[in-house]
TrEMBL record:
Superkingdom of origin: Bacteria
A single MF term (Gene Ontology): ATP binding
Keyword RNA-binding in annotation: no
Keyword entries, A-Z: ATP-binding, Nucleotide-binding, Transport
Domain ABC transporter: start-end pairs: 2-201
Protein name per the record: ABC transporter ATP-binding protein
Pfam families: ABC_tran
Amino acid sequence: MLDIKDLNKDFHKHTVLQHLSLHLEGNELIYIHGINGSGKSTLFKLICDILKPTSGTIEKKKDLQIGALIENPGFLENETLAYNLRFLASLNNHYDQQYIEELCQQFHLDFHSRMKLKNFSVGMRQKAGIIQAIMEKQELILLDEPTRGLDQESIHIFCQIINQLHQQGHTIMIAAHDYLPDIHYTHIYHLEGQLYLDEMD
């Protein structure tokens, strides 16, 4: 599904990622932790082709469908939640309104609300960002600090959804400071310019 070999990324002579390698077969649930500036968001941006590597290779399965929430989610601020989600899903012709409405209900968001995104709270925006990353049932899902701004109930709902997606065969990578014990990770990595596999109990 995804094969990263000897990946390096520099910004103005400052090395963020160095000799990073990672191989994903599929149906994995991965937690990546590391301090601020360790390269978590940069790695996700490289996988999504938002950034280009300084050197090294990233090989992806042909037509791999990737869903991503990286840093702060961006939306059409003067439009509603329904408009934003419909617009994003229609880009790949994967609009499933019933599934999207189910996700909104789980996160206690009103899909039919006329409220514009610019008036959403931080937590509401984060929920919308999570939904757009998973609503097309993408094969590979990248979530960068996904629980930022969420209350405990919403975090619990998030963990349930992630475990369910993994059971359905999706591969999910979560980069975050906070370890969520209710998520059934298959691999845990520490990122410090390079990836180090942590021992799991």
